[in-house]
């Protein structure tokens, strides 16, 4: 049986995560706080899987510099390599707005998103829309299939598996409704195994932020 197709050739986990988080129907990405967590976690996952980072008792430790990192991956690597080991949660929380801007600009330069900037009552406003909405839909379909479990986890491509694990940690609504995510707990654990410290930290950050927002 042939492996499941990968995401668009040349896409990195942060770029794919940004596109996956687009609500094509509403023509806007997920909330910036949630998206910032997701993008930071995607960059950490790529660095971990490539051997640039390692888990050391629940902390991220720099191992070797990445060969050709994207802008966000390079920024994350520089931060971690210049600091003592810290928890994955702290690295996911750090500079989320910068993560959003770096990946947005990378996608804009690749002509995968359109960014329209203007002012409303002197306040800057921007609108980001995908130039190729079918890419977001395709990613959502691939990730949903991976979560539903039609194929053994070991037969999935690494990029789809990583995206599925990260999407599950944030319960990304562009992939599945919240109630659907709860039904696939065991499958999500399998998908997340190679980057488990990161997905656990991502889930805890998202839950903490949601609880803080609910508490006012």
Would you mind describing this structure in some detail?
By secondary structure, this protein is an alpha+beta fold. It has one domain. It is 56% helix and 14% strand. It has ten helices and seven strands. The chain has a three-stranded antiparallel sheet with strand order 3-4-5. Helix 1 packs across helix 7 and helix 2 crosses helix 5. It starts with 12 loop residues before the first helix and ends with a helix. The N terminus is likely disordered.
Q: Strands, helices and their partners?
A:
Layout (H helix, E strand, L loop, with lengths): L12 H8 L1 E2 L4 E2 L2 H18 L3 E4 L2 E4 L8 H11 L4 E2 H6 L2 H14 L3 E8 L2 E8 L2 H16 L9 H13 L7 H6 L1 H8 L3 H20 L1
Antiparallel strand pairs: 1-2, 3-4, 4-5, 6-7
Helix pairs in contact: 1-2, 1-7, 2-3, 2-5, 2-7, 2-10, 6-7, 7-9, 7-10
**Low-confidence segments:** 1-10
Domain count = 1
Radius of gyration over alpha carbons? 17 Å
Fraction of helical residues:
55-70%
Main sheet characteristics: 3 strands, antiparallel
Class inferred from helices and paired strands: alpha+beta
Strand content: 5-15%
Annotation, overall tally of beta strands: 7
What is the ordering of alpha helices and beta strands? HEEHEEHEHHEEHHHHH
Basic shape: globular
Q: Which sequence of strands runs across the widest sheet?
A: 3-4-5
The number of helical elements comes to 10
- Average of pLDDT: 89
Distance between the termini: 51 Å
């Amino acid at each position: 049986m042939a492996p499941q197709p990968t995401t668009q050739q040349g896409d990195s986990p942060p770029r794919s995560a940004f596109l996956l988080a687009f609500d094509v129907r509403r023509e806007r990405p997920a909330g910036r706080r949630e998206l910032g967590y997701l993008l930071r976690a995607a960059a950490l996952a790529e660095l971990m899987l490539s051997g640039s980072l390692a888990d050391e008792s629940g902390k991220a430790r720099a191992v070797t510099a990445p060969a050709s990192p994207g802008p966000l991956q390079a920024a994350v690597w520089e931060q971690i390599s210049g600091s003592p080991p810290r928890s994955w949660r702290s690295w996911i929380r750090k500079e989320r707005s910068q993560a959003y801007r770096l990946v947005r600009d990378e996608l804009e330069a690749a002509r995968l998103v359109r960014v329209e900037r203007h002012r409303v009552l002197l306040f800057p406003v921007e609108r980001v829309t995908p130039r190729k909405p079918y890419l977001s839909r395709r990613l959502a379909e691939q990730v949903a299939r991976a979560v539903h479990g039609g194929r053994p986890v070991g037969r999935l491509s690494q990029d789809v598996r990583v995206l599925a694990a990260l999407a599950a940690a944030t319960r990304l609504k562009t992939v599945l409704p919240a109630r659907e995510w709860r039904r696939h707990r065991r499958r999500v654990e399998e998908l997340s195994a190679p980057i488990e410290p990161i997905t656990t930290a991502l889930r805890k950050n998202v839950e903490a932020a949601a609880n803080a927002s609910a508490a006012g």
